[in-house]
Automatic annotation (TrEMBL):
PANTHER family tied to this protein: GUANINE DEAMINASE
Record-level GO BP terms: guanine catabolic process
The keyword Hydrolase is assigned to this record: yes
Pathway participation: Purine metabolism; guanine degradation; xanthine from guanine: step 1/1
Identification of the protein by name: Guanine deaminase
EC number: 3.5.4.3
Functional note: Catalyzes the hydrolytic deamination of guanine, producing xanthine and ammonia.
GO cellular component, one term: cytosol
Domain Amidohydrolase-related: start-end pairs: 64-424
Cofactor: Zn(2+)
Enzyme class: hydrolase
Species whose genome carries this gene: Poseidonocella pacifica
Stored InterPro entries: Amidohydro-rel (IPR006680), Guanine_deaminase (IPR014311), Metal-dep_hydrolase_composite (IPR011059), Metal_Hydrolase (IPR032466), Metallo-dep_hydrolases (IPR051607), MQNX/HUTI_composite_N (IPR054418)
Record keywords, A-Z: Hydrolase, Metal-binding, Zinc
Length: 425
């Protein structure tokens, strides 16, 4: 298959190299796909002559980008997104836990898994890392749905053994046993990866954190995902629950849950020691900007953390986040950057939503960019998808100026076409 359009490829991270020169735009470009992988990238007409038998998807003037990668989502919260008026802890108790209890029914889990995958795909997201609920069947549901679509998906059973409704609580032993069983069944099955998932320190006993730390040590090839320092009330609660811990991160660190393959969602109110340790381990920080404003959590220090060399990915965090769209997520990242004194360049925003998220998921060599050998998860975008965007974009005198109105105002209408593993969706 040969996809024709304006092809965007990153040559380097725009946080390391000048944003303006970090990416190449090939006008009239082409991406050749063979066996689900990108095999050649270059001039569209030349590729067409060289491969006259290829099926051609000519997108006209659409922008061809790597699909978006959402590094932290809660698919079970799809149906309760945009629930009003609460902050983290009462939001969890009022909206989240009651909804997650419904995933006891496999049929409901399958229904929401399909709905969530439909929604993110329509928004140009071709890969994601999601929390499930504490029910093993919620993990089976989303992996089965993703496998049928050929998606690269990361997911894990959300473990909790305290401070949550009884119906959602497992135990330290059950968390270990059920996570291990799911890991052995799903990890490495096609494009699927199992992620060890303690929800966050307040809902796990030290025994459960230990059990999951042990499982991670036994399977260091897996990622581990959790939440860290999202709201100040939450941090005070962690201090009360773990009086001997040096800080929030230490509640993970002292139980074997700090590592380079760890994904720490939010990471807003970090102490200097926490920053240092996360950096030393090369851990992944996951910025969830629409969630941070929606639940009123605080401002992520993108400028400071990227300057210090941290690995950062971008995520919707649905349903704490208020959108399924990585475009909307980039816009919120820009807005929070402005409030924190750092105007992020459009190239930086785009990189975070593609290659940056892929890097924290340790699949930066497989997805998140358009390079021969990488998997063909691609999207075609219309940079003039609405009258408001179009009238601004036509005035642009540079490529990134043309892209920025779509970042700030675009939604699923900007996503013209999606290819997953080289197959048109
Ligand atoms: N902290 C613990 N659980 C959650 C969750 O489901 N969403 C968010 N935003 N934060 C959390
Ligand atoms: Zn979350």
């Amino acid at each position: 298959r040969l996809i024709l359009g304006r092809v965007l490829r990153f040559e380097a991270s725009p946080f390391v190299q000048e944003p303006e020169t970090s990416a190449t735009l090939i006008n009239g470009g082409g991406v050749l796909i063979e066996g689900g992988l990108i095999s050649e990238v270059g001039d569209g007409a030349a590729l067409r002559r060289k491969h006259p038998d290829a099926d051609v998807d000519d997108t006209g003037g659409s922008l061809i980008s790597a699909g978006f990668v959402d590094a932290h989502a809660h698919y079970p919260q799809t149906a309760m997104i945009a629930s009003w008026g609460k902050r983290l802890i009462d939001w969890l108790e009022s909206y989240t836990f009651p909804e997650e209890m419904r995933f006891d029914a496999s049929e409901y889990a399958r229904d929401i898994a399909e709905r969530w995958l439909d929604l993110i795909t329509a928004n140009g997201t071709t890969s994601a890392a999601t929390y499930c609920t504490s029910h093993p069947q919620s993990v089976d549901a989303v992996f089965e749905a993703a496998r049928a679509r050929g998606m690269r998906l990361f997911a894990g059973k959300t473990c909790m053994d305290r401070n949550a409704p009884k119906a959602l609580c497992d135990t330290a032993q059950r968390a270990y046993d059920e996570s291990r069983d799911l890991l052995l069944r799903w990890h490495g099955e096609g494009r699927l990866s199992y992620v060890i998932t303690p929800r966050f320190s307040p809902t796990s006993t030290p025994e459960q954190l230990d059990a999951l730390g042990t499982l991670w040590a036994e399977h260091p090839e897996c990622l581990m995902q959790t939440h860290l320092s999202e709201q100040t009330d939450e941090i005070a609660w962690v201090r009360a629950l773990f009086p001997n811990a040096r800080d929030y991160l230490d509640t993970y660190e002292s139980h074997g849950l700090l590592g380079g393959r760890g994904l720490y969602g939010h990471a807003i109110h970090l102490e200097p020691r926490e920053r240092d340790r996360l950096h030393e381990f090369g851990a992944g920080l996951v910025h969830c900007p629409t969630s941070n404003t929606f639940i009123g959590s605080g401002l992520f220090d993108m400028g400071g953390l990227k300057s210090a060399g941290h690995h950062v990915g971008l995520a919707t965090d649905t349903g704490g986040g208020s959108s399924f769209s990585m475009l909307r997520t980039m816009a919120a990242t820009y807005e929070i950057g402005q409030l924190s004194g750092r105007a992020l360049h459009p190239a930086e925003l785009w990189w975070l939503a593609t290659a940056g998220s892929a890097e924290v998921l340790h699949v930066g060599d497989k997805i998140g960019n358009i390079i021969p050998g990488m998997e063909a998860d691609l999207i075609a975008l219309d940079l003039a998808s609405t009258p408001a965007i179009s009238q601004r974009a036509t005035r642009a005198v540079s490529f990134w100026e043309e892209v920025f109105p779509t970042i700030m105002m675009g939604d699923d209408r900007a996503i013209r076409q999606v290819w997953i593993g080289g197959e048109k969706v």
